[in-house]
Amino acid sequence: MTxxxxxxGAIARVTIDNPPVNAAxxxxxxxxxxxxxxxxxxxxVTAVILHCAGRTFVAGADIREFDAPPQEPHLPDVIAAxxxxxxxxxxxxxxxxLGGGLELAMGCHARVAAPGTRLGLPEVNLGLIPGAGGTVxxxxxxxxxxxxxxxxxxxxxxxxxxxxxxxxxxxxxxxLLDAATALAGDVTPEPTLDRAVRxxxxxxxxxxxxxxxxxKARGQVSVAEAxxxxxxxLDLPAAExxxxxxxxxxxxxxxxxxxxxxxxxxxxxGTLSDPRCKGATRPVEQVAVVGGGTMGxxxxxxxxxxxxxxxxxxxxxxAASAGSMRVAQILDGAVTRGRMTQGARDSLQMRFSASxxxxxxxxxxxxxxxxxxxxxxxxxxxxxxxxxxxxxxxxATNTSYLDVTALARTVADPxxxxxxxxFAPAHIMKLLEIVVPDGVAxxxxxxxxxxxxxxxxxxxxxxxxxxxxxxxVLTAYRQEADALIEGGASPYEVDAxxxxxxxxxxxxxxxxxxGLDIGWAxxxxxxxxxxxxxxxxxxSDALCEAGWFGRKTGRGWYRYDEGAAAPCPDVAALLAxxxxxxxIDADRIMARILGAMQxxxxxxxxxxxxxxxxxxxxxxVAGFGxxxxxxxxxxxxxxx
Length: 640
Ligand code: 3H9
Fold this sequence. Notes:
The protein is α/β, with parallel strands linked by helices. It has 26 helices and 19 strands. α18 packs antiparallel against α24 (about 585-605). The two termini are about 40 Å apart.
């Protein structure tokens, strides 16, 4: 039974059991409608407790049903039936109470949550707004500014914050059902909708908060719609606001942005569907990172944040201490930004050590090499790892383009070698490419997949080639951007077109940030190695020859006189020496850039480097800020 009703004395218990996340599917909605009728009809019942079996309370509407016509009973009707019941309904919450799940809970007459519960209305992340009364009930329970942040920001809040704001009535440890039963006598079936809204104290401040949220969404329509829905809830009678919310929700459901966001939601959950990711894993508790530079220290911090014990190895004592400092700075940053307490930070530090002694690698379950990107340097590190590590320890390389299969063959047992390609800064960036060389053991792949989840990364499997997935696509569209400016476009037009499309920054701004010398070195390497598809970039080379490496030298494609980026007249003069100006419109620029991404993506698929087009999209969204609400370059090539 998806929804069952049992009775103990005068208390009815309605249990939803719809694994994995108790989504409010058609079966759940029908079962709840019947449960309301049964409880209303049973004269012996004086109160009803609503809870879920399994790992969570309802985590939302069933997203898989969104592409089919809605089937009755609709969630708003189920919630209205519960809210209008003559007996109090108490929601008992645990896990992730999201979207339609929170709307259901808000239709109940009281809410009790387990510690650790998270509650939210994340519909904007799916290109939607709440469609079952969330925008109307939430500002009746919590202050309007809190409601706005939750609805238009889409981030869940922890149980203690929910209690403080009025969203829930109690946080209870121990047996939650007992706690709810104890509360039952005090709860009256007063509808949430009958409460007055908790209007903002300062409407101007509220409006500014709304404008900030919309600006941050960079073109994602659901955020602006969410703001409008909260405003309606504040300004209109509840019934009118509810009807308008429902109409907006149904409209958005078919919007291309919502389709793209649904696609990427499931694409992200499908990247590790390779059978090798699902098998037995090797235990990983102790990780060693070799190389304490920007990348190595970020990887070490990411592992510490995930609860692992980390040893950092460097070539000598001063380098080990510099690496330790970098890790410590990242941990301090987490405290400064309020991500963790000083006490939690200190306990992470206790699980960290650093040295220059290869013998200290003997305990490691996994070693991640993050030394300078050079074949000989990495081969030397692998020879040392072969001698110093346990025979069952996994050896991972963080190379961004070297041949991982060739590197694996330099050790006695190549089956324990894999690529773990992090993106800088490694403790922040979501993407992790798991590079799978020939001959790797299945349990090594499964362990890498499990580790990616533990690190909170979005992982994709990649085959071995120069640049794997994300950097290969990046190189292709950078080359197209170079071709655009060589054809007469200005770098500022190209960047503006990309930002207008929804990218966080344009390709030339990005080069200024990471340093033009990096691309220059990569071009030289690719030219020397004869990498197929290599394309010279004479204008970028000219900037580098002039010593204009981007932000770090105060000028690159832009000038950074007082930190702010401004178009640079010297670059315009340099461009004029190479070709006449020939302005090009933003649509054409984006068609060219997307076309380059899609052609490279098609090649990556043909060569079997990615298993499916959606993995390429996930890599671009998680790795390079491709706007989620556009789905990804490959999704766009299939969408009219
Ligand atoms: C909504 O509620 C609209 C309403 O306002 C109005 C309605 C009228 N539906 O992520 P996981 C699947 S919009 C269907 O790996 P975790 C997921 O695909 C919705 N399926 O686990 C996966 O399947 P598989 C608002 C769903 O522990 C499995 O469950 N709610 C749904 O890392 C496990 O998922 C949201 O946006 C769903 N709603 O994270 C919440 N949710 O095993 C979306 C999950 O076959 N969900 N699945 O690959 C989440 O954020 C996370 O899944 C959650 C669990 C935090 C719940």
